[in-house]
Amino acid sequence: MHVHPHAQEQADDPYDDAPPRKRGSHASGDVPGASGAVAALSAISAASSGRPAAPSLPCALCRATFVSEAALQQHLTGPVHRKAVERQRAETERAARRAPYSALADAALGAAAWNSAHGSGGGGSGSGGRGGGRE
């Protein structure tokens, strides 16, 4: 029996907590951003064979395309999609927590850049390092 080399690597990956995928469940979940290319190739193939193109049902969050409503629904209720939703929710919450500090950080960085460009040196004495007030 011949085993594809990558199939063995997938099975032995101790860090892969996703359930094994069945062949043909969707067109291109393995390669992010490839769903559009796979859909286009599918349409070209269908046009040249004289049969209608298979429907292309996308999951934009996971960047995957599915060929049937049942496959899409299975994906939407599955662990891979749920993890993606959770990651997106967590990132949104982090961004909301950082928002109040964003303007302050921008102002501080802008002031530091201005000081650097204008040679004040950032001594903190207010004199800009010019004489120190003594004559």
Give a description of the structure.
The chain has 135 residues and is mostly helical. Helix content is 52%, strand content 4%. The chain is built from 4 helices and 2 strands; from the N terminus they run ααββαα. It has a two-stranded antiparallel ribbon with strand order 1-2. The chain starts with a helix and ends in an 18-residue tail after the last helix. Residues 7-11 and 24-32 have low confidence and may be disordered.
Q: Numbering strands along the chain, what is their spatial order in the largest sheet?
A: 1-2
Overall average pLDDT: 74
What is the count of β-strands? 2
Ends: how far apart? 92 Å
**Count of alpha/pi helices:** 4
As a percent range, the share of strand residues is under 5%
What structural category do the secondary elements indicate? Answer: mainly alpha
SSE pattern, N- to C-terminal: HHEEHH
Poorly predicted runs? 7-11, 24-32
Estimate the helix proportion, in percent. 40-55%
**Principal-axes shape call:** elongated
Largest sheet: 2 strands, antiparallel
Compile the SSE list and pairings.
Layout: H1 5-12, H2 35-49, E1 57-59, E2 64-66, H3 69-76, H4 79-117
Antiparallel strand pairs: 1-2
Please outline what is shown here.
With 135 residues, the chain is mainly α. It has helices at 5-12, 35-49, 69-76, 79-117, and strands at residues 57-59, 64-66.
